[in-house]
Amino acid sequence: MAFPASEAPLDCDVDVFNGVKVQVAALGEAEDFEGALKESLAVWAREGRTGVWLFVPNSRASWIPTALRQGFDFHHAKPGQAALIKWLPTTTPCMIPRAPFTQVGVGAVIFNSEDEILCVQEALGPLRGKGVWKIVTGSADPGESICTAAEREVFEETGLRTSFDQCLLIRHRYPSATANSDLYFVCALKLNAENQELVIDKTELTAAKWIKFQDYLTQPCWSEGTIGKVYREEINPVIERYRSGGFRSGLTATSSEGDSKYGKHSVYKAAAAGARANHRLTSLFRPFRSGLGFMRRLL
Q1: Residues of the chain with CATH 3.40.630.30
Q2: 13-87, what's its fold?
Q3: pLDDT (average), residues 81-92
Q4: Which residues are in the Nudix hydrolase domain (predicted)?
Q5: Contact 201, 157 (CB under 8 A)
């Protein structure tokens, strides 16, 4: 059931939490913003509203000090707009969720038919110029699933077309209460075709190549710092188990872009016990299964 509309001087929308949202861009240039805001706050308090949101475009940035003087605080900012909030109830703590504080990253594990792993060297960032060969990594874009983010990053950086296979591991990094957290999804991908040409994005990479997995594992970087330790003790062993066919607990996607089953939701879950075959042994047993099928037809 919707909450009733507000009678405050400032035009606003009432949301499902009985809060109000004001699009400052829609207000007239000659608006007495300070007076209208002060009167509106009194009306909203009488109406029993909860939180007040002000969405202020860059063109009205000079109005922000007025809102701050009346008890608003910054919530978040995006290109072209800042959002300010004020909690009205005096008997309950503010229940407006914090601005998003978690970044979503992906790492792409890809092996070719020669049992080599795809690795790159970065042109920017902390590993620049250190000679480290690492898997393709990057950040998910807004509105993008983990599957698509991993496939896109590989194509953008190396020119290879791949398909998501499974999520091998999730690492959660939370450096401090004031810094963004980081969710890092290490994903296994399959090449759509062998013998694709590597075409690197020179703004992000200095090199990309297929290397023997043992050469990847024996790099000295895995003995350096906290991130190196996480790779050495957690991530690289999982990649090794996937490579050798001993990994059976990966998370597979039940939907993705283009699949309207859940709208803009992608669900990742572990396969039922015995439901997912070892990715290397599958090809070995295929002739045996075919032979059994032939014998059944004879009988």
Answers
A1: 13-87
A2: Aminopeptidase (3.40.630)
A3: 96
A4: 101-236
A5: yes
- Where residue 247 falls among pLDDT bands split at 50, 70, 90? low
Asked if residue 276 lies in contact with residue 248, where contact means CB atoms within 8 angstroms, the answer is yes
Q: In the chain, count of helices (H) and strands (E)? A: 7, 13
Q: What is the CATH number of domain 102-255?
A: 3.90.79.10
Q: How many CB atoms lie within 10 A of CB 29?
A: 6
pLDDT of 290 above 70: no
Enumerate the CATH 3.90.79.10 domain ranges in the chain, comma separated.
102-255
* Contacts (Cβ under 8 Å, ≥6 apart) of 151: 161, 162, 163, 164, 189
**Nearest to 162, CA basis, from 131, 126, 127, 198:** 198
The rounded distance, in Å, linking the Cα atoms of 6 and 173 is 43
Whole-model pTM: value is 0.78
Amino acid (one-letter) located at 275: A
Q: Is the pLDDT of residue 150 over 70?
A: yes
Sorting pLDDT into bands at 50, 70 and 90, what band is 248? low
